[in-house]
Amino acid sequence: MKKETLSDRLNKAMELAGMSQGALAKASGVAQPTIWRLTSGNARGSTKIVEIANALGVNSEWLSTGIGPMKKDGTTPINASPSSNTFKIDILDLEVSAGPGVINREFVEILRSVEYSQDDARHMFDGRKA
């Protein structure tokens, strides 16, 4: 069984809090590229774990090590992963340009996500296949 990493825990907490990388950066006072490095697994830790945990409403010890309850109130969500019967659509923060002058970022930020049930998706897309 794969051991859960800081990146896994941070992504789970962000999803449950409904926070994008940019929103977490603002709420915690941590630079957004640092949040990206942590969520992508390119960094093993940070001196700002307490600030990040506070912004997400989770225990800093759980976020850092995986030990203890996830939430500050001592609870751990039973099902943090989305149902397999739903479709998740990410709304991305993108920039485009037809000429010189725009530098694309190293990553694409997810502003928010919307989930639809199979029936809702089928109705919205008139039963078209993906």
Automatic annotation (TrEMBL):
Domain HTH cro/C1-type, residue spans = 10-63
**Signal peptide (residue range):** none
InterPro entries, from UniProt? Cro/C1-type_HTH, Lambda_DNA-bd_dom_sf
Task: Please give the Gene3D superfamilies that the UniProt record associates with this protein.
Answer: lambda repressor-like DNA-binding domains
Q: Which UniProt keywords apply?
A: DNA-binding, Transcription, Transcription regulation
Q: Give a yes or no for keyword Transcription in this entry.
A: yes
**Pfam families, sorted:** HTH_3
Q: Name one GO molecular function term.
A: DNA binding
Q: Does the keyword DNA repair apply?
A: no
User: What's the protein here called?
Assistant: Helix-turn-helix transcriptional regulator
Origin organism is Salmonella enterica (Salmonella choleraesuis)
